[in-house]
Amino acid sequence: MILKQIRLKKPMPAENRFPFGLPVVREFDSFTFRSPVTIIAGDNGTGKTTLLEGIAAAADSILISREPIEGNPALEHAREIADHLTLSWSVKSRNGFFFRALDFVTYTIAVSQMREDARETLEEIRSRNPRSLEALPYARTYHELRNLYGEGLEFRSHGESFLDLFSARFRPDGFYILDEPEAPLSPAKQLTLLAMLHEMVEEGAQFLISTHSPIIMAYPGADLYEIRGCRLEPAAFDEVEHVRMTKDFLNAPERYLRHLFN
Ligand SMILES: Nc1ncnc2c1ncn2[C@@H]1O[C@H](COP(=O)(O)OP(=O)(O)OP(=O)(O)O)[C@@H](O)[C@H]1O
């Protein structure tokens, strides 16, 4: 285990404003990691993302753009939560990141722009002087991005590019916080993601994941939690509302649809 425990440094303020107005944040207590894969389920709006943002800020995680959370105006609330938390590490990992689906599109566009800028500058310098040393940093940026992401994440489907990013950026011994990583993935590709997680766990990585996907929740040996009311409660796979409801629905869709449409 890389991250062992999260404890409260000081109680969360009893304030109604975001983020402390969210019950799961206000009531957050110590949390012990018991498995390399910890999964948090919960209905929309229960605060999964907000909680992960706070933990990511406390862990000094970087975003997929490699930018820190510190100083990011859109993540000021994450720093506020982090100020109340103390983390206990076995070893502080330098590998890892905090992945949010909403950062992904921005990142894909930024990488494509960076690669094109490097390519154009490289061509311009080489047209002036093919042996110029000035070209070296641009050549390095261009080739590094080509090595990491091939032709470019923007030339892949949304789901394919998610998996490309994970496979390019997961590293052994990394600590990864993934917020709804299943977003664009088909059931088959969610299984691929499970296999990737397993491969990385075998290499010492640790994952904290929020998800709505029963497939991701089924990761063998995952420590599964559900936000119920205002608390993060340990949950067995079959007890999680997403799993129960999906099973019920698939067993008899007409029962649900009759209620909805009549
Ligand atoms: N920056 C913000 N300012 C004010 N309120 C916010 C902000 N971000 C989220 N909220 C509110 O906090 C609540 C929890 O949001 P959060 O995104 O953490 O939920 P979630 O459990 O991740 O939901 P989902 O499953 O839909 O992603 C929501 O009601 C939301 O409107």
UniProtKB/TrEMBL annotation:
Ion transport among the record's keywords?
Answer: yes
Q: Which residues form the signal peptide?
A: none
What compartments host this protein?
A: Cell membrane
Q: What is its main location?
A: membrane
InterPro entries given in the database record: AAA+_ATPase (IPR003593), ABC_transporter-like_ATP-bd (IPR003439), ATPase_AAA_core (IPR003959), P-loop_NTPase (IPR027417), Rad50/SbcC_AAA (IPR038729), Siderophore_ABC-ATPase (IPR051535)
Checking PROSITE patterns in the record gives: ABC_TRANSPORTER_2
PANTHER family documented for this protein: IRON(3+)-HYDROXAMATE IMPORT ATP-BINDING PROTEIN FHUC
Q: What protein is this chain from?
A: AAA family ATPase
Species assigned in the record = Bhargavaea changchunensis
